[in-house]
Amino acid sequence: MSKTEEFRVSGEDLMSKIKELLKEGNIRRIIVKSKDGKVIFEIPLTFGVVGALIAPQLAALGAVAALLTEATLVVEKSED
User: Fold this and answer.
1) pLDDT band at residue 5 under the 50/70/90 scheme
2) Partner of 14 for a Cys bridge, out of 10, 29, 30, 65, CB 3.0 to 4.6 A?
3) May I ask the CATH class of domain 2-78?
4) Strands (E), the chain
């Protein structure tokens, strides 16, 4: 079972918010949407796969975040 949370963040705060959420450890998927609701980036995460395996995706997301003024961060969390 999973639950979804949404956060509105500025482009410059996007990466810090994602890193904060990843530390929680129960994230299944991260979706970044533009101000008009279009999906810009999606990162599916499997349990325990954080760190080096998603580093390239986070680097690409950092480049995208630099271009955004505002974004919606959709986080799918597993409920244990």
Assistant:
1) very high
2) 65
3) alpha beta
4) 2-10, 27-34, 39-44, 70-78
Burial 27-51 (b: 16+ CB within 10 A, else e): beebbbbbeeeeeebebebeeeeee
What burial class does residue 75 get, using C-beta atoms within 10 Å of its C-beta: 0-12 exposed, 13-18 middle, 19+ buried?
Answer: buried
Domain positions in the chain are 2-78
Which residues, 6+ apart, have CB-to-CB distance to 72 below 8 Å?
Answer: 6, 7, 8, 9, 32, 33, 34, 35, 37
Q: Which residue has the tokens 């979706």?
A: 31
